[in-house]
Amino acid sequence: MARESLIPATEKRETKMPAIANILTLEQEKNPWEAQAARFDLAARKLNLDNGIWKVLRMPTRELIVHIPVAMDDGSIEVFTGYRVQHSIARGPGKGGIRYAPDVSLDEVRALASWMTWKCAVVNIPFGGAKGGIICDPKHMSQGELERMTRRYTAAIIDFIGPEKDVPAPDMNTNEQTMAWIMDTYSMHMGQTVTAVVTGKPVNIGGSRGRREATGRGISVVCDQALKHLGMDIAGTRVIIQGFGNVGSNAAHLLYKKGYTITGIAEYDGGLYNADGIDIPALIEHRAKAGTINGFAKAEAADKAELLTRECEILIPAATENVITSQNAADLRCKILCEGANGPTTIVADDILEDKRVFVIPDILANAGGVTASYFEWVQDRMGYFWTEAEVNQRLDAIMTESFTDVVSYATSHKVNNRIAAYMLAIDRVAYTTKQRGMYA
Ligand SMILES: NC(=O)C1=CN([C@@H]2O[C@H](COP(=O)(O)OP(=O)(O)OC[C@H]3O[C@@H](n4cnc5c(N)ncnc54)[C@H](O)[C@@H]3O)[C@@H](O)[C@H]2O)C=CC1
Ligand SMILES: O=C(O)CCC(=O)C(=O)O
């Protein structure tokens, strides 16, 4: 089973960061905006990108900061800071999720917005890139507080969003309910129901069948493709997943159903391991009842950080940024790293993984199933005609398979790693449109 390397030794790679590891502090290494910019610069240099277009695409188009007053349940008033950043609107309306978390920052939202631009271009859907976030601690807020905060945030950014301008969706700690509140608030202001202003809504109010599972489904498709590419079998392929939220749990469930062996799950409050494979449907049921993965009887408790370095064929970080860094990348014992989260790997870790010959499926490809199904939702809302789940899944599988082939072929023909190939492919597409539109005249 053990293989020395998945990348043939003869394959020469030319995509290492120029000795960057020696000059960054850990804090700098973990700045997502710098991480995005370093990959962008490297890919742009390889493309010989025109200097002017380079400057246009390096910076976000628009950054909005809002301060949102909210009446709390105890009668006090709290003011939350929120962001919406539109990185590029060259290829279509801005598109991207909204996250609620205590550590949201402008640099993070900027990075996430630009990753959306590159992601939508990698899968070739007609959107630009945007992202939003609110600094808050949703675990300690009631449903009422979350609803009031969401509605005021929507009102504060209302001039900047819309079906033809910028279309939000769920991200960390936001969900179908959050999208329903945004859609309703926007519709109240417009005086009519506007379903296409957000995606990831409940199905009965214009959501798409299959959107909830779509990011996990896309991950399962690129994992299948990676195994095929590398001559490996699903049988005996061990998978460890960090994060058991929307992305992680759906990826786990779909991979489980396909016959992969999910040996480890890491969550923020603990981890689980079972060398014979975790019964994922039973774990989903347990988590729904207990509110945590801890205490699940059919697996042993494991250290959540150590789980990332256990031997497996596929490691899927599906929680948050900066979990694979200079501090642990050398210890990873996976053959394939499939990035379900956005920005889970730092630029220093990129180089370490390159040296270890880990086959990386980069975030802007691996987790693009979500936004692809969001595109389908937006199309269905605008048509007022809704597809079956089978139709959504079949179209999603086709786009993810084609995009995987595009990126891996590009990497081979340009002698770069998969991440830089994905960036180059995306930047080329966005640069072409930016130039064609003359978005600087
Ligand atoms: N929801 C979507 O459709 C998409 C999400 N993503 C990305 O996937 C990642 C996860 O997003 P969702 O699943 O939507 O969020 P979520 O909020 O549904 O789930 C995140 C899960 O990760 C866990 N978690 C947080 N920090 C952790 C840590 N340090 N260690 C272990 N577990 C941790 C949380 O407890 C939670 O269960 C984010 O990076 C997000 O940007 C990317 C593409 C689409
Ligand atoms: O579904 C969408 O529009 C965006 C999802 C998202 O935020 C992401 O892909 O990171």
Automatic annotation (TrEMBL):
What name does the UniProt record give this protein?
Answer: Glutamate dehydrogenase
Q: Where does substrate bind?
A: K95, K119, S374
As for family, the record states:
Belongs to the Glu/Leu/Phe/Val dehydrogenases family.
Query: Is Ribosomal protein set as a keyword in this record?
Result: no
**Residues annotated for NAD(+) binding in this entry:** T215, N246
Q: Which organism is it from?
A: Granulicella tundricola (strain ATCC BAA-1859 / DSM 23138 / MP5ACTX9)
Q: Which SMART domains match?
A: ELFV_dehydrog
What's a single GO MF annotation on this record? Answer: nucleotide binding
The Glutamate/phenylalanine/leucine/valine/L-tryptophan dehydrogenase C-terminal domain extends over 208-438
